[in-house]
Sequence to fold (281 residues):
Amino acid sequence: MASQVELTPCGAMFDIFKRAAHLSHIELCGLVLSSRPLADGRSPQSRAADRSWVSRFIVRAPVGTLQQRYFAEYGTSAARIMSQLALRQRNPMDSTAVINMVCGPAGEPMVRALEECHQDTNLYRNALDRLSQAAELMPAERAEAVLVLFVAVGCSADVRSSVNYAIDYAHATCGGGTSTPRSLGMSMTAGEREPAPAHPLGLLRVQNSFVVSAPRWIQPSEQGVEIGALATGEGDITDVGDDVSARHAHIWCDAQNIWHVEDLSSTNGTVVVNGATRVCI
Fold:
């Protein structure tokens, strides 16, 4: 049976750092909690040694009750943790070790915790994958960006806002991005508009001629949805392959009940194929 620590993203974060990075709860509190005083004049950081308070209001606090004012800015926390892990005399962790901790088996309790609170784990995994492999970033910058995302979801339990924060952080602080790896032999031609009745549009993910996802139904609307590895809008589709860009394509239905697909300047392009004739439209 899963423990209470594993059922919340914050609890999972503390547990992973303790097991994989050998950071005690007191040490981690000193790195991620805010130094700003609360109403009683004491800061959350000053309560790091108060096991009862940390357990009740931080580690074991149910999702929705955890107050964001208790935490330092996520980028600051991640930078502190990176420095602590790299410079300590016993069990130092380099950039590769940090990425492996967050993205590998040791980081799986976070994925389960996010599933428990109905977050988009496809989006979380996609973001980790893109940040950890971003060619524009140096190894230390990749590790820091990954750690920023990990800390953000742990403290907020909100994947969409955390992904946006981590990507903005990577651009502003590290000077890099999250581009899609280019795939050879794929068309760069953008798809044209395809007429269709104003019924829900069903999408399936197909890989190597096999259907590998459940149907995703898009309701007719002019707002539509985006498809992309890092698409963060409500209802957007993130269950995609490695060759799909962060924001790949936009699908919507206009006032004349016609469906449209627009490529969003993706790396590998978007092609619309007639299902009956297999001819590109």
User: Anything to note?
Assistant: The longest helix spans residues 139-156.
